[in-house]
Amino acid sequence: MRLSALIIGVFVSSAAHAMSTGELLKADKQFAEGYIFGAIEYQIAVTCNDDFSARRQEIRKCLVSGKFMSDQLYSTVTTYIRSHPNQSNAIGAIIYAIDEVCPQAGK
């Protein structure tokens, strides 16, 4: 949860990087898939001097072993957004959707 809050804070701190869930749903599908992939890749690939490296590796293993492709990630995230209308930040929705897909990775 702390990692999610940190990542959301990083993206929300700059309006240039923040996208709302409504904007993500309205965006061109290829752009939205790239945005989702970029947010996930940032979450699992950017190394930080913190206590979350094991979680990042578990998320990576979960997504790779599940053979999640951009189409599946897009579907997972947009389904999450539609079922959680109070979630307004796209990055937050992406992170929480991945948390639901990979619960074994812990929070």
Number of DSSP E strands? 0
Total of DSSP H or I helical runs spanning 4+ residues: 6
What is the C-alpha radius of gyration, as a whole number of Å?
A: 13 Å
- H-E string: HHHHHH
Question: What class, by secondary structure content?
Answer: mainly alpha
Q: The biggest beta sheet, please? A: none
Distance between the termini: 5 Å
Mean pLDDT: 79
Portion in strands? under 5%
What's the overall geometry? Answer: globular
Residue share in helices? Answer: 55-70%
- Low-confidence runs (pLDDT<50, min 5 residues)? 11-16
Question: Can you offer a commentary on this structure?
Answer:
- The protein is mostly helical.
- Helices cover 68% and strands 0% of the residues.
- The chain is built from six helices and no strands.
- The protein has helices spanning 2-12, 21-26, 29-45, 53-65, 70-83, 90-101.
- Helix 1 packs antiparallel against helix 6, helix 3 crosses helix 5 (70-83) and helix 5 (70-83) crosses helix 6 (90-101).
- The radius of gyration is 13 Å and the shape is globular.
- The termini are close together.
- Mean pLDDT is 79; it is low at 11-16.
Helices and strands in order:
Elements: H1 2-12, H2 21-26, H3 29-45, H4 53-65, H5 70-83, H6 90-101
Summary tags:
single chain, 107 residues, 6 helices, globular
Summarize this structure briefly.
This protein is mainly α and 107 residues long. It has helices at residues 2-12, 21-26, 29-45, 53-65, 70-83, 90-101. Helix content is 68%, strand content 0%.
